[in-house]
Design brief:
mainly beta; Immunoglobulin-like; Jelly Rolls; 6-stranded antiparallel sheet; 2 helices; 20 strands
Length: 334
């Protein structure tokens, strides 16, 4: 009996101490983060007032809030109109959640320009503002096929139908998605699907083949396409000719031709990207079997063809093209 009392006496402190610790355990969010009043404890700041993204510099933002909220930083180029958005849910904004590397959410791409910065909060009227200067925009890694900044490469081949209201030319104005220039393609051809084309031959870049990786799963074809508001007639067709036998030329009957169709059904600029290994072989728009080795070999790519098409009964078609680039490891993040 004495042993029983002694055992009970020894474990009582342990029981009480455990229950005391349990009282201090609170599962779930802090009540202030849910029901507390919202206020700005520390205003919006950024680590630099000007940035050279071409050198790999970045911008980090910071602010301290009284409670957890959904927040959004919107950066808008005052010359380009480019927009970058960074969003999160927190009471503390710092470099771990809000760092800008110069990329763009909404095209066009940023230029050398002053940018307006706004920090807004879901359900709150407060807006914090600042400005930052881009000394140079970021440089995208990859093989640049065309950005039209220096005119037509003399090695490219072009053709334009003799239709109505034809407007095939490089234009330099504020409408460019990247830089200051783009290629405009527009017109009406009521007897043929083809309106015009540009062929980008590898020889125009100084080699019989494009200098690309041999791994088709690691290569991405990217370009920026503008859809004219109210017009959905344009069909872009990109063809990729592979020189399977390595003789520096392409034979359609014995070598692979892969094709990528882009119906332009949107308004404004849009980035279009596709993995090279996902580009199908098409004949008259239908899946087909390649005539060569049947393998995607980007290192044997001899020519890229850009064809501007439209149904001849649909009337006027118009689009703009900019910044055609091949990237490795991931699609273009402009």
């Amino acid at each position: 009996m004495k042993k029983s009392y002694l055992f009970l006496f020894l474990i009582l402190p342990v029981l009480f101490s455990c229950r005391k610790d349990e009282k201090n355990i609170f599962e779930g969010p802090n009540l202030n983060d849910v029901y507390g009043a919202f206020s700005i404890i520390e205003p919006l700041t950024h680590n630099v007032d000007s940035v050279d993204f071409s050198l790999g510099e970045t911008v980090s933002f910071a602010a301290q809030l009284s409670k957890i909220v959904d927040w959004k930083i919107t950066i808008t180029g005052q010359t380009s109109g480019a927009v970058k958005r960074i969003e999160g849910t927190a009471s503390t904004i710092d470099a771990s959640v809000a760092t800008w590397m110069g990329n763009t959410t909404d095209l066009p791409i940023f230029k050398n320009e002053i940018c307006k910065i706004q920090l807004t909060f879901d359900g709150e009227n407060d807006t914090l503002e600042s400005v930052i200067k881009i000394i140079n925009p970021k440089i995208n890694q990859g093989f640049l096929v065309a950005d039209f900044e220096t005119g037509f490469n003399p090695g490219w081949s072009t053709f334009i139908q003799s239709g109505a209201d034809m407007d095939f030319q490089i234009k330099t104005d504020s409408n460019a998605a990247q830089g200051n220039s783009y290629y405009n393609m527009a017109g009406t051809v009521n007897w043929d699907w083809l309106i015009g084309y540009v062929y980008f031959n590898a020889n125009s870049y100084g080699a019989p083949h494009y200098p690309l990786t041999a791994n088709p799963d690691n290569l991405y074809f990217n370009l920026m396409v503008y859809g004219e508001p109210g017009l959905q007639n344009t069909l872009l067709l990109f063809q990729f000719q592979e020189d399977d036998d390595g003789n520096g030329a392409f034979n359609n009957t014995s070598e692979d031709l892969y094709s990528f169709e882009i119906p332009v059904t949107w308004a404004g600029w849009k980035l279009v990207s596709i993995k090279y290994s996902d580009i199908p072989c098409l004949v008259n728009g239908q899946p087909s079997t390649p005539n060569g080795n049947g393998q995607h070999n980007p290192d044997k790519l001899q020519q890229i063809n850009m064809l501007d098409l439209a149904n001849p009964v649909s009337g006027y078609a118009s689009t703009k093209i900019d910044y055609i680039i091949l990237t490795e490891n991931a699609p273009l993040n402009p």
